[in-house]
Design a protein that fits this description.
Elements lengths: L3 H5 L1 H18 L4 H4 L8 H15 L5 H6 L4 H5 L6 H17 L5 H16 L13
Helix pairs in contact: 2-4, 2-7, 7-8
């Protein structure tokens, strides 16, 4: 039976998707409020790699993230980041656009979108927001 990662085209396709997602985040002014959430973390170059590693394992491929960090607990990974419902929706919209840009569609992508929607809203939290104007 094929894993979701294999159905998407394997690690190479996933890498293209993650790259496109973060390229959009860095270049689209409409996504600045989402991009700023990474300013106080490890930065986008770290996040690009971590996102690929996490999604690879999440989609049934090699669990690079778990190998490196010992877990794949999304709440723990994001517990320091102020995530509002609007942030979750913007993340989902940006990821959806990256999926479209990469020509990814079909039942596996529909299931991925549904799963990511549930997860994104689970991560909405009450962490005090960082000042919008400063990194």
């Amino acid at each position: 039976m094929q894993t979701p990662l294999e159905a998407l085209g394997g690690e190479e396709a996933l890498h293209r998707l993650v790259t496109r997602f973060y390229d959009r985040m860095e270049s689209d002014p409409a996504v600045h409020s989402l991009h700023r959430l990474h300013f106080r973390g490890h930065g986008l170059s770290h996040t690009r790699q971590a996102q690929f590693e996490f999604l690879c394992g999440f989609l049934g491929g090699r669990a690079y993230y778990r190998e490196r960090h010992g877990h794949m607990n999304l709440r723990e990974i994001h517990d320091h980041v102020p995530i509002r419902a609007d942030d979750a929706e913007l993340w989902l919209d940006t990821f959806d656009a990256a999926l479209s840009d990469c020509g990814m569609s079909g039942p596996v992508v529909d299931q991925l979108r549904a799963t990511l929607r549930r997860v994104a809203h689970i991560l909405v939290n009450e962490v005090p927001d960082w000042r919008l104007g400063s990194p």
